[in-house]
Amino acid sequence: MSKLETNTIDTISGSTNLTLGGTNATDITIPSGVTITNNGTQSGFGGTNTPAFYAKMSTDQSIADKTNVKINFNTEVFDVGSCYDATTNYRFTVPSGQAGKYFIASSIRFNSDAGNNFQYAYNILYKNGSAYSANHINTDNNPTLSDNINVNGIFDLSVGDYFEVFGHLSVISSGSQEIDASEQGTTSYFYGYKIIE
User: Which residues contact 139 (CB under 8 A, 6 or more apart)?
Assistant: First the structure.
């Protein structure tokens, strides 16, 4: 092994690209304790939190009493990697080649009419068709007309795994109840992204 000691490596006049390694090099090792200082533009370092999606509802959605109902997040704010279906299944699916750890979250705002207070409600993340993670409120003796419930988690997912959001509401008497979409989709939404490992 030979050793080159120098202070500056630069390109020859008329050339703009400098290449370290070539046909025989597979790795470049930076010793422990060495700091790399970047004063220019970097490319190919680090990573991105993609695939990533954010979906909301275009309109309020009715929800039956004491029934797990899929929430129709039918409007994509963004969908990097074409991983979210906003037209048919309202679900996020891990794309090919993108297995790994993901942060998945949703928020649901439950509303009921003035004569139909609810006692408890659930926001449920379904994985591959089954309830997987949930959060809920239980108002006990103080029924409420409206409340937000959030649920989130970090999940180790394989290609083809999918997530959907379901809501569950228990009301005191018959009447109307719904998931509130809000004008800007700020009260009910569904989002997620791949975590850089």
Answer: 117, 118, 119, 120
How does pLDDT run across 61-118, given as a tens digit for each residue?
888 778 899 999 999 999 999 999 999 999 999 999 999 999 999 998 877 665 566 6
Distance CA 109, CA 154 (A): 22
Distances in Å between the Cα of 10 and the Cα atoms of 6, 7, 20, 28 are: 11, 10, 11, 18
**Is the pTM above the cut of 0.85?**
no
pLDDT value of residue 8: 79
3-state secondary structure of 144: strand
Nearest to 146 by CA among 119, 110, 100: 110
164 contacts 90 by C-beta, under 8 angstroms: yes
Rounded distance between C-alpha atoms, residue 189 and residue 151, angstroms: 11
How much is the pLDDT for 177?
Answer: 58
Q: 77 — phi, psi (to 5°)?
A: -80, -45
DSSP letters spanning 99-131: -EEEEEEEEEEEEE-TT--EEEEEEEEEETTEE
Domains of the chain, each with CATH number or no CATH: 52-194 (2.60.120.40)
- Whether residue 111 contacts residue 178, with contact meaning beta carbons closer than 8 Å, is answered with yes
3-state secondary structure of 24: coil
pLDDT for residue 30: 79
Q: What is the mean pLDDT of the chain?
A: 82
